[in-house]
Target: ATP-binding protein
Amino acid sequence: MTEKNYCQNLYLNSGSLLIYRNLLKDPVINKLRETLKEVSKNDPNEETILTSHYDMYHNLLQSAESLNLSGNVLKAYIINLLLNDKNFFSLTCERYGHNIQKDLYNIALKDMKIIRSIIGANLDSIISSFTSPCSFLMNYSPTNKSEQVQEFKDYLFKVLNSDSDETLLDSLISYYYNIGCAELSNHVAFKWDNTKGLVGVKSFDKVNLDDIVGYEYQKETLTKNTLDFISGQPANNVLIIGSAGTGKSSSVKAVVNKFYSSGLRLVQISKEQLLCLSDVLKELKSRGKYFIIFIDDLSFEEFETDYKEMKSVLDGGVEGIPKNILIYATSNRRHLIKETWNDRMADEEIHTADSMNEKLSLSERFGIVITYDSPDKKHYLKIVQSLAKKQKIEINEETLNQEASKWELRTHGRSGRTAKQFINYISSSI
Model:
């Protein structure tokens, strides 16, 4: 086969993708196809070829740095496109894994054959008569070597090292099912954007339950409820109340870190986004993962009414909360909604009891309420000692306790956060 015929066939075949047609809109693939199309002409335009070729390599180089792609950059880039492609096949595999119909599997297999032919294209050879090769992108090492979740890396390794159409497809299906596709393919935690939807959190707090000293009953209760949830057992929405800095939010993050390998993901929304809660539920219910919708520092002033949206959802609403979603919220208020003297007076509202019940009943919609009390002195010093040990701070225990006690008196009182701030201070002073 002549080089011209090879380029022509590759160009035409790449345009016949059925499932992964979104790839044809990608700038790198688009420039690659432009190059192939021009080279396959009887009288190719050298300027067009070189412009398309170097535009493609520019985009690849930029992506290698921003996406942390190494080795064969074109291959790594296309694999990244496959993992992030949100289509009917990837979404189906996310929910059902390898339990898909044979017809759909075979259609996807044809796409794999085309995609592997693109990955295996010798681009430098194709345009060798026009310019020198860009061989550095065959074994590239990016400056930005960001750390990735180990399990994600393990599944990605299998995809990248697939040596046949079948193994590529099977490893992709496994990735979709165990990790997720599109937005879910690279992150454990997300924030909700009212315009974009799910947005991955690149540097999610890697806190573990053991990092939170004490509060054993609270952590055990939260862990058991979450385990029941991801095991398909009945589980409850959870309200965690307590003073600032006691570990409420950290406990939720730690539970997600503990169970992410079992398909648990966290989606954080703000109080102001409660009006979008139905949109969040709609997006998540069809995905093949378990989600904790996390609302941190939730409380309402007496004039705010957004809590009614949340109350409706917790009550079940018309559709009810999907089985793959729970809501975990933290607050420093037991009843979430500020209660004022006017709530107790009948001069401004005739049905005073009804008004108070309306405002105080939101917290009752959470099946589990966990309290994180401020630590007493013994607990506080235990936290300090634990943190000092982890950071390998060598200091006399009596001196450490004395300084920690002085610190909490002149700062924010006793809490895990105060203890951490003290350790940060003392570690730079000795």
Residues 164 and 225 are 42 Å apart (CA to CA).
